[in-house]
Amino acid sequence: MRKEIYYAKVEYKWRIIRFLKGVSKPSKSWSSSSYETCILTNKVSELKQDMYLLKNLRLKHKSRNDIEIVFTDIKNAKYLTMSNDVY
Question: pTM for the whole thing?
Answer without folding.
Answer: 0.82
